[in-house]
Known about the structure:
Layout: H1 3-10, E1 18-23, E2 28-33, E3 36-40, E4 45-51, H2 55-63, E5 65-70, H3 76-81, E6 98-100, E7 106-108, E8 113-125, E9 128-140
Antiparallel strand pairs: 1-2, 1-5, 3-4, 4-9, 5-8, 6-7, 8-9
Amino acid sequence: MTSSTIAQALDRLGYGVYLIGVKTPHKMNAMTAAWVTQVSSRPPLVLVAIGKTHYTSELIAEAGAFSVNVLRSDQYELARRCGFGSGRQTDRLAGVEVAFKTTGAPVLTECAAYLDCKVVERLEAGDHHLFIGEVVEGSDTGAPAMVYRSADFF
Length: 154
């Protein structure tokens, strides 16, 4: 099996599209992510995989918290805006209404659902940091969630 056939097979895995939000005393940022999954029910834990070179990875490590915002199926423009370039130079959330819940991480007021998480563990996996967060608050609007398809973004 070649790396291109492996990549093709991996593209068949299903993902949602999420904005991972984080706020430190100096910066607020959000990035588009697809690699998010629940890893425990008791306590409720989720895992987010963030590239080691991504600015958001640095901010989550500093803040000790993050939000997972499940994007609505009509929020492609926002997903693209937060998925390219770096939040280091750009205010990706400019003009986006956010609220701050228990952890202080930004939560989109117009998303399908959100999870507010405090970091309980950080692991390294290849070129990514894996942040495991305990969900301390969350809500679901019932709106249809966006599904990730690489052709929609690349």
